[in-house]
């Protein structure tokens, strides 16, 4: 019995270490899972933005941006969701289609905030068919970068800031 009494303190340390390792592993797994979920939700915002711009569904911006979002683009600057929608609407109309391809999305998470950078290719194409062609030719196209500040809100992740910077363009954007 005396021998067991001396062994208990020796066995207590490995037992405590094992318990800590199991807890840390579980916490680490949960943390990694949370990070993957956050990245997925933020990436979905980028995809939803591209679809909203292509389809002219600016009402979808309410599920992409915060109410106090700020935007900066070659078309101007805006603060507040309604003004950002108006800014986007000036360059996107029913008379044209505008496919947006946003890729190479990089997300730097920092708790309930994230910085996002992505590359973009876009084109502005007349909506009306062009006689003798399979599809209309774009009158304006370009490529550049998007930068977003994302924040976790009670409704999920949203972009609080967006900035677009063209690196190249071809053609002329209609006034």
TrEMBL record:
Keyword Signal: yes
Matches recorded under PROSITE patterns: PROKAR_LIPOPROTEIN
Residues covered by the SnoaL-like domain: 34-162
First and last residue of the signal peptide: 1-21
Keywords per UniProt: Signal
InterPro entries: NTF2-like_dom_sf, SnoaL-like
Keyword DNA damage: no
Top-rank lineage group of the source organism: Bacteria
Pfam families tied to this protein: SnoaL_4
Name of this protein: Nuclear transport factor 2 family protein
Species of provenance: Nocardia coubleae
């Amino acid at each position: 019995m005396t021998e067991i009494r001396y062994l208990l303190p020796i066995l207590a340390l490995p037992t405590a270490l094992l318990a800590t390792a199991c807890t840390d592993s579980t916490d680490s797994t949960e943390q990694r899972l949370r990070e993957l979920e956050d990245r997925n939700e933020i990436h979905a915002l980028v995809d939803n933005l591209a679809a909203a711009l292509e389809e002219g569904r600016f009402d979808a911006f309410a599920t992409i941006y915060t109410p106090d979002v700020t935007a900066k683009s070659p078309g101007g600057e805006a603060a507040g969701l309604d003004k950002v929608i108006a800014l986007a609407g000036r360059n996107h109309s029913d008379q044209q289609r505008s496919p947006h391809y946003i890729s190479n999305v990089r997300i730097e998470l920092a708790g309930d905030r994230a910085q996002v950078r992505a590359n973009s290719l876009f084109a502005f194409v007349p909506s009306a068919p062009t006689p003798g062609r399979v599809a209309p030719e774009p009158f304006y196209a370009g490529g550049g970068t998007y930068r977003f500040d994302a924040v976790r809100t009670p409704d999920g992740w949203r972009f609080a800031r967006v900035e677009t910077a063209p690196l190249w363009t071809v053609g002329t954007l209609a006034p």
